[in-house]
Amino acid sequence: MSQAENERLAKMPAATDLYQIDSLLSEEELLVRDTVRRFVAERVKPQIAEHFEAGTFPQELVPEMAELGLLGMHLEGYGCAGMSAVCYGLACQELEAGDSGLRSFVSVQGSLAMYPISAFGSEEQKQRWLPGMARGEIIGCFGLTEPDYGSDAAHLTTSARRDGDVYILNGTKLWITNGSIAHVAIVWARAEDGVRGFLVERDTPGFTTSTISHKLSLRASVTSELHFADCRVPVANLLPNVRGMRGPLSCLNEARYGIAWGVNGAARTCYETALTYARERLQFQRPIASFQLVQQKLVVMVTELVKAELLALQLGRLKDSGRLHPVQISLAKRNNVREALQTAREARNILGANGITLEYPISRHMNNLESVFTYEGTDDIHTLIIGQAITGENAFA
């Protein structure tokens, strides 16, 4: 290769930031990203494969994530960091570069448990719960999905009947992240005046949880069922400032926003692993990176990663400026999860048989992304949301 060619290649942008997206980030945003990236590199990646294999959640990391201000970091006051939407997105991206289970924990804690208290709770509820949740001393979960009602959440059957100064809850919630370790559950139930949200404390009589085992995905995360059998919840634990499906759906939009960022971290880890492997792996006396088909796979991966990162960044800018619409969240969640999963599959292909072991992170991310593809709105549901927005026709009916 000529000296001129070497100089030209030396000026090329980095293979992990091919579109120089770093230049679009502020100093604060870069600081948040790099801080979380360092935490993941030092504290998460060295141990997460063992937790995945054992099916355990690294709960010892919760105080450290709280110390970094990651729990409810996009909320204002009550001990929360009050960071921008873009900063929160970048944090999700770096956490999921480690494992979807860590990002899921932070997402559920901040967007699905703390957010409804912040948005719809009384002042007393905010004072009681949010500071401890921001410190990681109180863990929350979000109970909406039911055994017979996932995507069709508007027809949930968990009931809440008023009886004097309590509500009596009956029903079951399924696929609940953090459920078995949560101190408080945000539970959505059908009351006489519509769907309402309740703060159900761990020791409430009639409230029990069971952990879902034998998972092949999100193994380094706690997934549970919540059971309510004549569970008596004080009226004071009703979220007073929301009624109907607007409450849970607004929470889901907060969580979907974080997912649209987070999966880019998983995709980046898979791409970087495949790129490094392809440069080092020799076949036919040459690195496999020199073969056209391998290069083609890597090019598609990095192209989709760049597109997904730009999509997430614009989503964050829209959110920070107050112009975000739920359809835009659906578009980003659908695209970015779909492409991250495809990137993981192609990266596994490049690694061949080595790609199925926990020595490399790719199959772990691929299995996790199968769950992310489904939760917080399946790929099909987001497709129909976008379809209705652009055609004006409701395909759900």
TrEMBL record:
Keyword Flavoprotein annotated: yes
Cofactor requirements of the protein: FAD
Acyl-CoA dehydrogenase/oxidase C-terminal domain sequence ranges: 243-390
Matching InterPro entries: Acyl-CoA_Oxase/DH_mid-dom (IPR006091), Acyl-CoA_Oxase/DH_mid-dom_sf (IPR046373), AcylCo_DH-like_C (IPR036250), AcylCo_DH/oxidase_C (IPR009075), AcylCoA_DH/ox_N (IPR013786), AcylCoA_DH/ox_N_sf (IPR037069), AcylCoA_DH/oxidase_NM_dom_sf (IPR009100), Glutaryl-CoA_DH_mitochondrial (IPR052033)
Molecular function terms from GO: fatty-acyl-CoA binding; flavin adenine dinucleotide binding; glutaryl-CoA dehydrogenase activity
Acyl-CoA dehydrogenase/oxidase N-terminal domain sequence ranges: 26-137
Keyword Flavoprotein: yes
Sequence ranges assigned to domain Acyl-CoA oxidase/dehydrogenase middle in this UniProt record: 141-231
GO annotation terms (biological process): fatty acid beta-oxidation using acyl-CoA dehydrogenase; fatty-acyl-CoA biosynthetic process
Keywords, in A-Z order: FAD, Flavoprotein, Oxidoreductase, Transit peptide
A Pfam family: Acyl-CoA_dh_1
Family note: Belongs to the acyl-CoA dehydrogenase family.
Designated name of the protein: Glutaryl-CoA dehydrogenase
Organism, scientific name: Tengunoibacter tsumagoiensis
Lineage of the species this protein comes from: Bacteria, Bacillati, Chloroflexota, Ktedonobacteria, Ktedonobacterales
